[in-house]
């Protein structure tokens, strides 16, 4: 297996179909991360705060981002051996919370690939926008990929 | 539930909570997130790849810390950003559970921007498992 392909820096992946945020998935995710606020499960509580529907927890966008990142990571030419991957960093910048009913489009930017001591650090930035084209969230993720000898 | 006001001071502890993580929670998070990496449920596989055993998803640890903060805030939209480094794996025993201690402290206040940095400190048995775990939260005008 060759090293991670640095030629991918600067590429943008937009081939993942839009993700529809559902009440059921938001409730399931909220329960899994122990988010107990009623805004995640009760549309009336969410509407009382001015939202159109239930609100996703702050890290819910990882579902949308990882689904889109797969288009890059699973590209054979990218040369990322997922069995050698460790998650190094993750970050979310929110323009607004994701709410149920959102149709979320993604663009995965390969921002950097650096190699040090046989470990490749691959940083992607996934821009998530809504059906109207307005930005919703930006998700940055760095994967550490161990080489054959490390 | 609370909102942070511009009167908040650096160093103030907002809350401290504990969250138990057992194998049941790992399975729930795998299903909810779609992350089915076997290192999060299969001891044999985890050991083969050099881990001490099944470990929690880093994103579960981050998600638990984030949820503790947004549950404390009145409006989840007050969370503007949250980022972490995954510095240490969190082994999850079977049988049993591991306890994550989550503390939130005001790291900095930017009154001009109307934001505060909240440091979400997450540790297991006194050892930190997340690095640079920093959220930015919107400040509200102080109530009269």
From the structure above, extract its key features.
heterodimer; A: 150 residues; alpha+beta; 6-stranded antiparallel beta sheet; 3 helices; 6 strands; 19% helix; elongated; B: 144 residues; 35% strand
Can you put this structure into words, describing what you see?
The complex is a heterodimer of chains A (150) and B (144). Chain A has 150 residues and is of the alpha+beta class. Chain A is built from three helices and six strands; from the N terminus they run E-E-H-H-H-E-E-E-E. In chain A, strands 1, 2, 3, 4, 5 and 6 form a six-stranded antiparallel sheet that branches. The longest helix of chain A has 13 residues, at 61-73. Chain B has 144 residues and is of the alpha+beta class. Helices cover 22% and strands 35% of the residues of chain B. Chain B is built from three helices and six strands; from the N terminus they run E-H-H-H-E-E-E-E-E. Chain B has helices at residues 23-33, 43-48, 58-72; strands at 13-21, 79-86, 98-110, 115-124, 127-128, 130-138. In chain B, strand 3 and strand 4 form a beta hairpin. Chain B starts with 12 loop residues before the first strand and ends in a 6-residue tail after the last strand. The model of chain B has no long low-confidence stretch (mean pLDDT 95). Chain A binds chain B through residues 25, 28-37, 39, 49, 55, 57-59, 62-63, 66-67, 83, 86-94, 96-97, 140, and chain B through 1, 19, 25, 28-29, 31-35, 49, 58-60, 62-64, 66-71, 74-77, 79-86.
Secondary structure topology:
The complex is a heterodimer of chains A (150) and B (144).
Chain A: E1 12-13, E2 19-20, H1 23-32, H2 43-48, H3 61-73, E3 85-94, E4 103-116, E5 119-129, E6 135-146
Antiparallel strand pairs in A: 1-4, 2-4, 3-6, 4-5, 5-6
Chain B: E1 13-21, H1 23-33, H2 43-48, H3 58-72, E2 79-86, E3 98-110, E4 115-124, E5 127-128, E6 130-138
Antiparallel strand pairs in B: 1-3, 2-6, 3-4, 4-5, 4-6
């Amino acid at each position: 297996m060759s090293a991670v392909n640095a030629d991918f820096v600067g590429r943008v992946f937009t081939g993942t179909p839009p993700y529809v945020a559902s009440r059921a998935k938001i409730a399931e995710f909220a329960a899994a991360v122990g988010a107990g606020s009623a805004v995640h499960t009760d549309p009336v509580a969410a509407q009382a705060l001015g939202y159109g529907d239930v609100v996703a927890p702050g890290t819910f966008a990882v579902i949308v981002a990882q689904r889109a990142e797969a288009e890059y990571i699973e590209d054979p030419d990218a040369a990322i051996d997922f069995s050698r991957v460790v998650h190094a960093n993750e970050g979310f910048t929110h323009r607004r919370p994701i709410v149920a009913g959102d149709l979320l489009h993604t663009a995965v930017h390969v921002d950097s690939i650096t190699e040090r001591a046989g470990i490749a650090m691959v940083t992607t930035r996934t821009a998530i926008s809504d059906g109207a084209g307005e930005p919703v969230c930006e998700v940055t993720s760095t994967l550490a990929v161990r080489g054959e000898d490390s | 539930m609370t909102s942070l006001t511009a009167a908040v001071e650096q160093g103030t502890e907002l809350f401290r909570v504990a969250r138990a993580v057992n194998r049941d929670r790992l399975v729930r998070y795998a299903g909810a997130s779609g992350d089915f990496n076997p290192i999060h449920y299969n001891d044999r596989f985890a050991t083969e790849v050099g881990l001490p055993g099944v470990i929690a998803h880093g994103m579960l640890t981050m998600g638990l810390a984030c949820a503790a903060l947004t549950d404390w805030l009145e409006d989840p939209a007050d969370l503007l950003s949250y980022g972490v480094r995954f510095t240490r794996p969190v082994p999850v025993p079977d049988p049993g559970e591991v306890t994550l201690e989550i503390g939130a402290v005001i790291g900095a206040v930017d009154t001009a921007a109307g934001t505060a940095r909240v440091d979400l400190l997450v540790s297991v048995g006194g050892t930190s498992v997340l690095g640079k775990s920093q959220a930015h939260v919107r400040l509200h005008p102080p109530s009269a």
